[in-house]
Amino acid sequence: MLRITLIRLASVVPVLFGISVISFFVIRMIPGDVISSIMGQDFGDPQVEAAMRRYFGLDMPIHEQFLTWFGGLLQGDLGTSMRTSRPVLAEIAERFPATLLLAVSALVVSVVISIPFGVLSATRRNGFLDAASRLVSLIGLSLPNFWLGILLVYLFSVTLGWLPSQGSGPGGTIGLAYLMLPAVTLGASLAAISMRMTRSSMLEVLNQDYMRTARAKGLSERVVVARHALRNSLIPVVTVWGIQAGALLGGTVVVEQVFSWPGLGTMVIRGISQRDYPVVQGTLLFLALFYVVVNLLVDLVYVYLDPRLRSGH
């Protein structure tokens, strides 16, 4: 177990290095000049422009810029925002809780919806509930997040007036009413994927020999499903959750824009539009690190769910 964990941790290094290289050079391919964007109407004074380029290190060759940024990265410095003059790490720390809360809430929404309906769909195969669940999951997979978000805003905010359409709460706080619509929007597609995976996995497990043995022992169908079938069927479902949990942070970019949620997504979009290189580079690297850590945790959950992995078979 320890050996597997160390191997996975070692594999993080080349992944993060590759992402740092890609993010550094790709952001600089965006058309436009960052100095002209910062200076605005004052752009055109050669001395001021040259001073600004020296201040941000943009007068150096591109490879030297990368080595300077990467050297700071090895010391835990993600750079300084060109717009706010604040450390990028401080801005990430300020906005990450909102993004994490949104991602976790979306994951909870997915679990609450997908597990019960996936199990019911499998245990009542080819019935009305099974057909309805498959139809709902197909719709959830087909609707883009931004379109679903707009529909929910129109229904619950504009038409019914039950929930706020934008923001996170008064005074920078995060209110439950403000969280509900973006969490459902972000969790809908994951719920659809998890529901279909839970159904197919449950159908496979229910036909195994040990399930027939459990029924032959006189156990009720509810105990057989809850204690034996569900736990074994969750292994492939956890795979989906692990992959999607990391991807949820990336998916928040669109949802945060729709609902004006003050998280990393809006910060990345702002950084791209303003060509704030350090903000985009640092945030992408941070999200990649989070994704890798989540996948490592999923591997550890595998070991808990599948005794064969603990025994080394």
Radius of gyration: 24 Å
CA(first)-CA(last) distance: 12 Å
Count of β-strands: 0
Q: What structural category characterises the helix and strand content?
A: mainly alpha
Q: Give the topology string: H per helix, E per strand.
A: HHHHHHHHHHHHH
Uncertain runs: none
- The number of distinct helices, counting runs of at least 4 residues, comes to 13
Helix percent band = over 70%
Oligomer: single chain
Average pLDDT = 79
* Proportion of residues in extended strands: under 5%
Q: What's the story with the biggest beta sheet? A: none
Shape: globular
Write the layout of secondary structure elements.
Elements lengths: L1 H26 L6 H6 L6 H11 L5 H13 L13 H36 L4 H15 L2 H15 L16 H31 L2 H8 L4 H39 L4 H11 L2 H29 L1 H5 L2
Helix pairs in contact: 1-12, 5-6, 5-8, 5-10, 5-12, 6-8, 7-8, 7-10, 8-10, 10-11, 10-12, 11-12
Architecture overview:
The radius of gyration is 24 Å and the shape is globular. It has helices at 2-27, 34-39, 46-56, 62-74, 88-123, 128-142, 145-159, 176-206, 209-216, 221-259, 264-274, 277-305, 307-311. The protein is mostly helical and 313 residues long.
Concise summary:
The chain has 313 residues and is mainly alpha-helical.
Attribute tags:
mainly alpha, globular
